[in-house]
Amino acid sequence: MKKITSLFLSLIMIATIFCACGDKKDQTDLEYIKEKGTLVVGITDFAPMDYQDKDGKWIGFDADLAKAFGEYLGVDVEFSLITWSNKIMELDGRTIDCAWNGMTLSSDVLAAMECSNAYCKNAQVVIVPADKADQYQTAESCKDLKFAVEAGSAGRDVAKENGFKYIEVIDQATALQEVAAGTSDAAIVDWLMAGAMIGEGTGYANLTYTVELNDEEYGVGFRKGSNLAGELNKFLKQSYDDGTLMNIAQKYNIADHIIAQ
Amino acid sequence: MAILEVCGLKKSFGKTAVLKGINFTLEKGEVLVILGSSGGGKTTLLRCLNFLEIPEEGVIKVGGKVIFDAGNSAVLSESEIRKNRLNFGLVFQSFNLFPQYNVLKNVTLAPSLLKKGTDQEITQNAKQLLSKVGLSNKEESYPCELSGGQQQRVAIARALALNPAILCFDEPTSALDPELTGEVLKVIKSLKNSDMTMIIVTHEIEFAKNIADKIIFVDNGVILEEGDATVIDAPKNERLKNFLASFS
Amino acid sequence: MSDFFEQFPTVFSALNVGFLQTLKLFAVTLLGAIPLGLIVSFGSMSRFKILSGATRTVVWIIRGSPLMIQLMIIYYFPGLILHNPIWGSGEDGRFLAAAIAFIINYACYFSEIYRGGVQSVPRGQNEAGLVLGLSKRQIFFKVTLLQMIKRIVPPMSNEIITLVKDTSLSRIIALQELIWAGESFMKGSRGLSGLIWPLFFTGIYYLAFSALLTALFNYTEKKLSYFKI
Predict the structure, then answer these.
(1) What is the maximum span of chain B, computed from C-alpha positions, in angstroms?
(2) For residue C135, what is the nearest residue in chain B, using CA coordinates?
(3) Spatial separation of the C-alpha atoms in residues A99 and B106, rounded to whole Å
(4) How far from A145 is each of A162, A182, B170, C30, C32, CA to CA, in Å?
(5) ipTM reported for the complex, 2 dp
């Protein structure tokens, strides 16, 4: 009996230690970031937004912009690769401070996170084998295809709105692979991602994109209620006005997509 | 003076009394055969003498010295028991050789761990014992390479290596094919000729008659009949008569 | 094909980095789980009913639930439930959390193998040692230990080869192990994107490594085959 009691007590103690140094309720997110001196940016491998150069350093439009935002705040920026579908858990569990990786501002995203203003335009496009592209130039003509879409993605939402038949796969790369392997007829992915991942010189040289199913916009997600979203909006405005934002966009060939701040 | 005196030995497992007061004595050089049907308590008696079971009541004396007294906690400590059990050797029904050691190492392991002499003396002695049981040519073999009869002879040599005052056998031939029992019985017989004091639990009635100086018949936890080898030909007890009749 | 030869050095070095992480997780798990499993097995064989009952319940929970969930609980719970992200966000924190989850999980599997090994040694071996006047310690080290080892080598080698492949589960908490490294070339990494072959190429690493381990275990089994139990 003694053993159980002592075991129980030590469990409570461990729990208290964890909780004792837990959140300080009145601290804002900005104060929290400044206190620890780093902004942890949750990303995935996603050219041209976030990817590693040959030396393993993070570059890309989002990565460079995040570094500039860090300078603006006066904190270091740390990139942390995450499993994208876990991003809200990562934010709430404070293992990252923002999800910044070409994130479409869908209604789900807006509800779960504190989001910045949109800074980049995007679309969801239909991916089909190049030799069949002629047949599928309108949304209507795609009605009978079986689609692969990333679980919980904007592509999934579009597929649903259009009444397509679809299966959900773990990420957009897998959705492309489904089409390449013929296990699905078509996929719906981000237009920006499609630009980098399919066509000449890639592993998906025989895939192409056809219909743009919608227009959408990218934003950055923070913890619910965070005041960092407002800070980022101020920074976006400032760097748009002084030209920094466009410079970075030109570097990665996406200047056409930038939204005026 | 008797080399072994057992007085009032009692042992039960849970609510089942297995030994209900066993008394006997044994002289040096004598061979005692214990007969009895399965579950009658014979094996438990041997296990008590070797302290694989601890009796609840009773006294055991070897050479006049008390080595066990259920009422005296001084002789019940683990180190005392370890020391005193060396008065006895035990040969198991299922041999229980150590499979990872060769025959020679099986015999020398305990003497060398217990530092019973120099390595050379121990090896010398082991080789003699192995030749005594007729296995000189098997020193390097592993138990899995031996027949049951050969394994049991190694087990006898292993028990003898610690030079026990009394050697106990728990149905030494029961696990053997009939054609292999002879070689083991022959070794036991040769030990009697060299005046080894032995206690043998066996179902080999002919062998018992041949080798026993003394026979006790244990049934239901008590000794029902006691005497020399002639009790086998002329049993008085009704249970012993039935028991013997089941073999003929 | 010429593309392939241009891409290969970059992909190969990135995969090696991922493989190193896989190996690190593999080695740390074994180093932790082999001794911890022994402690757990003593717990589950304890004569104290409370201790053995509690240990067996824990073993049941760990063995009965997916390792993937355990990884997520260990990495995310401190921040989500206790509001204290003890692991931090970097790769070191993710590695530590993954290592702890793997060690606990594999210790539970190993403990059951150890328990089987201990209980499979016939009682007669212990008794033979006792009547020869050996101490419990001597019996364990000189008599029963090697017999246990011989019994547990085949099931342990199974588990250990499973572990090689299970390490890839740690990508659920974004540990950049071998599969992650291979997959990253689909989405863009080190100037390359849209490559499928690196992911499948990782299979060769796993195959080669398990072949090495299999050879090692076969050698051990052969070494112990001179006796039968």
Answers:
(1) 55
(2) B82
(3) 69
(4) 12, 12, 81, 48, 50
(5) 0.92
Residue A16 pLDDT greater than 80, yes or no: no
Q: Does A95 touch chain C (CB under 8 A)?
A: yes
Alpha helices in chain C (DSSP H): 2-44, 49-64, 67-80, 91-120, 123-131, 136-138, 145-166, 178-187, 197-223
Q: pLDDT, tens digit, for every residue of A226-258?
A: 999 999 999 999 999 999 999 999 998 888 889
β-bridge pairing B57-62 and B65-69: antiparallel
Angle between helices C145-166 and C2-44 (to 10 degrees): 140
Two tokens, residue A11: 């469990």
CATH code for the part of the protein at C2-223: 1.10.3720.10
The token pair that represents B61 in the structure block:
């004396």
Total domains in the fold of chain B: 1
Does residue A48 have a cis peptide bond before it, meaning omega lies within 30 degrees of 0?
Answer: yes
Q: CB–CB of B106/B129 below 8 Å?
A: no
Confidence of residue A22 (pLDDT cuts 50, 70, 90): very low
Neighboring chain B residues of C138 at a CB cutoff of 8 Å: 113
Residues near A75 by beta carbon (within 8 Å), at least 6 away in sequence:
A33, A34, A37, A38, A39
Indicate the range of A8-17, A113-122, B42-51, B108-117 predicted with least confidence.
A8-17
pLDDT of A203 reads 79
What CATH number is associated with residue B232? 3.40.50.300
For C71-99, what is each residue's pLDDT tens digit?
999 998 888 888 888 887 778 889 999 99
Tokens of B105: 């190492």
Chosen from C120, C127, C132 to mutate, greatest number of chain B CBs within 10 A: C132
User: Taking CB atoms and an 8 Å limit, are C132 and B109 in contact across chains?
Assistant: yes
User: How far apart (Å, rounded) are the C-alpha atoms in residues C100 and B54?
Assistant: 46
| Cα-trace Rg, chain A | 21
CB B162 within 8 A of CB B110: yes
Domains in chain A, ordered, with CATH? 32-121+217-257 (3.40.190.10), 124-214 (3.40.190.10)
Take residue C209 and report the two structure tokens written for it: 């490594």
DSSP C136: H
